[in-house]
Automatic annotation (TrEMBL):
GO terms for molecular function: cysteine-type endopeptidase inhibitor activity. Belongs to the cystatin family. Phytocystatin subfamily. Residues 42-118 form the Cystatin domain. The keyword Cell membrane does not apply. Gene3D superfamilies: 3.10.450.10. This is Cysteine proteinase inhibitor 12. Keywords: Protease inhibitor, Signal, Thiol protease inhibitor. The keyword Signal applies. Residues 1-27 form the signal peptide. It comes from Acorus gramineus.
Amino acid sequence: MEFKQYHIKSLLLLLSVVFAFSGGLEAAKMTGGYNEIPNASKDPHAIALGAFVVDQYNAISHASLKFIGVLEALEQVVAGSNYKMAILAFDKPYQRVYKAMVQENLNGARKLTYFEAVLA
């Protein structure tokens, strides 16, 4: 009887630890939602996406923006990834902040879906 109660208590303790830990992970990374990319300004993938955004915008609009850096980036993991970004670019004679959204499929193909100056 004592042995059985010990196992039940141990099992309950183990389950409570597992549930507490998994709940912490869910809070840290929300499934289907946007999550911040830590240190996006130094993250190689975020920087590559930022440069892609500016290049695509220049090609579409015949502009001549110069990519400076990524200020912030959020990622949503779906079948591929969606990104919301704040990008700093040089638009003669000013540095400006732009909002952008990019889709990246599982093969790495990217598509610019939104681009706008935050302050004109």
